[in-house]
Amino acid sequence: MRLIICRDYAQVSGWAARYIAKRIKETAGRDRPFVLGLPTGSSPLGTYRELIDLHRKGELSFSRVISFNMDEYLGLPAGHPQSYRRFMEDNFFHAIDIDPKNTHVPDGSAPDPEAECRSYEEAIAAAGGIDLFLGGMGSDGHIAFNEPGSSLQSRTRIKTLTTETRRANARFFGGDPEKVPPTALTVGIGTVMDAREVLIIASGYAKARALKAAVEGGLSHWWPLSCLQTHPKAIIVCDEEALDELRVGTVRYFKSLEGPVPEGSNPKGER
Ligand code: GLP
């Protein structure tokens, strides 16, 4: 696992965007498109803005990219203002040249959600598997909606959200956790682990406990992100605040391996 330590959120966003852009460009001459896994939440917003910026400057095209989002609330139709499909349209897809047919988000209003989960896995496989899965991190260490206790080999399925996650996401539902749907469709930990690369963004003090568990703790279903320890190509890019619980020696170790991180292009980098 690589741990890239940035000063702040702006630098995290710049680093993540440049990394993704580099990977997409490297596959320009390849016979199949680049397959990108994508998250929602506050963490990736800066990265999406940086990627949009690169696209607007003519430096990056998404015309040969297929995307698969991690998750969607069960019961929310695509047009619902808080659906993850809507989040992706508003914060990313509308501003880039990705073919809408190539964007996939689990359908939260599918008549048969279990069949939807199965066909989501089939669609990922048919696209050739995910090249790079970008993700965030829940404060309890969840990835996508794989809450603590999730099988580390799980596939796309329906999950019940914890009280902590519904509280954390209440900010998008008028501050009321009861309004956050209680269940979601989510890719599994096994689905994420099948990606050729995984890139996780961790920013802010709220993620410090989960980051410590993922980096310094043992492999455990209680901290789903610890799964990255067994991935051949996993990167966590984090800011100084998220380091708060790590040992000084751990921070020094990763800083000495990676060296100084270049500045992001978006100095303000607000979420
Ligand atoms: C939700 C999403 C996750 C995301 C997490 C953290 O639970 N399902 O994919 O990583 O929120 O969100 P944020 O980045 O807003 O802290």
| Helix percent band | 25-40%
Strand fraction: 15-25%
Average pLDDT level? 95
Q: Which oligomeric form is depicted?
A: single chain
* CA-atom Rg in angstroms: 17 Å
* Overall strand count: 10
**Strand arrangement, largest sheet?**
1-10-9-6-2-3-5
What is the structural class? alpha/beta
Helices and strands, in order, run as: EHEHEEHEHEEHEHEHEH
Unreliably modeled segments = none
Please summarize the sheet with the most strands.
7 strands, parallel
**Contiguous helical run count:** 8
Which ligands accompany this protein? Answer: 2-amino-2-deoxy-6-O-phosphono-alpha-D-glucopyranose
Gap from first CA to last CA: 26 Å
Task: State the shape.
Answer: globular
Describe it.
- The strands form two sheets. The chain has a seven-stranded parallel β-sheet with strand order 1-10-9-6-2-3-5, sandwiched between helices.
- The chain has helices at 9-26, 45-56, 84-91, 113-126, 163-169, 189-193, 208-216, 248-258; strands at 2-6, 34-38, 65-69, 71-73, 103-104, 132-135, 157-160, 183-186, 197-202, 234-239.
- By secondary structure, it is α/β, with parallel strands linked by helices.
- Helices cover 31% and strands 16% of the residues.
- The protein is globular, with a radius of gyration of 17 Å.
- 2-amino-2-deoxy-6-O-phosphono-alpha-D-glucopyranose (GLP) binds next to helix 5.
